[in-house]
Amino acid sequence: MKLSKKLFAEFLGTFWLVFGGAGSAVLAATFPDLGIGFVGVSLAFGLTVLTGVYAFGHISGAHFNPAVTIGLWAGNRFNSKEILPYIIAQLIGGIIAAGLLYLIASGKPGFEAGGFASNGYGAHSPGGYGLLSVFLIEVLLTFFFLIIILGATHRNAPGGFAGIAIGLALTLIHLISIPVSNTSVNPARSTATALFADGSWAISQLWVFWVAPIIGAFIAGIVYNWLGRGDY
Questions:
Q1: Are 36 and 28 contacting, i.e. CB atoms less than 8 angstroms apart?
Q2: How do the domains of the chain map onto residue ranges?
Q3: Which fold has domain 3-227?
């Protein structure tokens, strides 16, 4: 598959993830009387990945996330030469999605961006959790997300079910961690929404949602590579 097609697939998939996931939080989570709440947002993020895997997995591998790209590389599943192009495509897709979401949301009278579904710690954590708690949960949940991705896409895994496992894993991750960090496990998603949040706090805290997911993903790649050594 040509790299240009892979990158466009990553652009579209990350766009879909941010628009669908963050869009559910911005537009529907607190809608009067019928808001979908944390459970609905969790499902929305999981469904974007589930559907994106089946739409684009055969083209690009359906990463939609810089941490996933790095974790797959650490697990010897991805070419190092394509890491930077993939991450750039993911960032562009996410940022454009967040920009369009902002434009749509601002069409409502009295709209205020607020946190715009951004990730944060301290006063900007939904539950008021501190930096250490947020850092640890982001490392831990990204680690398990990559373990599930690596396992579900292993050549010995049951065929055709990877998207379901990965999508449900992301749903579970959000159910656990929305109160703590508003759930990142994805630096592209975090960057996209931070750019449109009110004030500068989301940008100043963004480093956590790059460093922690990448650490978790990298460790997962190493661990799973060891677990499956000799089986690839």
A1: yes
A2: 3-227
A3: Glycerol uptake facilitator protein (1.20.1080)
147: left (phi over 0), alpha (psi -120 to 50) or beta: alpha
Asked if 18 and 93 touch (Cβ cutoff 8 Å), the reply is yes
C-alpha to C-alpha distances, 163 to 45, 52, 70, 141, nearest whole angstrom: 13, 8, 19, 18
Give the Cα separation of 21 and 93 in Å (integer).
13
Give the whole-angstrom CA distance, residue 194 versus residue 114. Answer: 10
Residue 102 corresponds to which tokens in the numbers above?
A: 């902002």
120-134 mean pLDDT: 98
Cβ contact 50:127 at 8 Å? no
Q: How far apart are CA 222 and CA 94, in angstroms?
A: 27
188, 194 contact by CB (below 8 A): no
The one-letter amino acid at 44: A
Q: Are 190 and 210 in contact (CB under 8 A)?
A: yes
Q: Which amino acid type is present at position 176?
A: I
pTM equals 0.95
Residue the block writes with tokens 């959790």: 129
Tens digit of each residue's pLDDT (9 = 90 or more) over 63-78: 999 999 999 999 999 9
Cβ atoms of residues 6 and 86 within 8 Å: yes
The DSSP secondary-structure symbol of 68 reads H
Q: Is 142:217 a contact under the CB 8 Å cutoff? A: yes
pLDDT band of residue 52 (cuts 50, 70, 90) is very high
Quote the radius of gyration of the chain (alpha carbons, Å): 17
Structure tokens at 105: 């949301």
Signed CA dihedral, 137, 147, 184, 174: sign only = negative
- Cβ atoms < 10 Å from Cβ of 152: 17
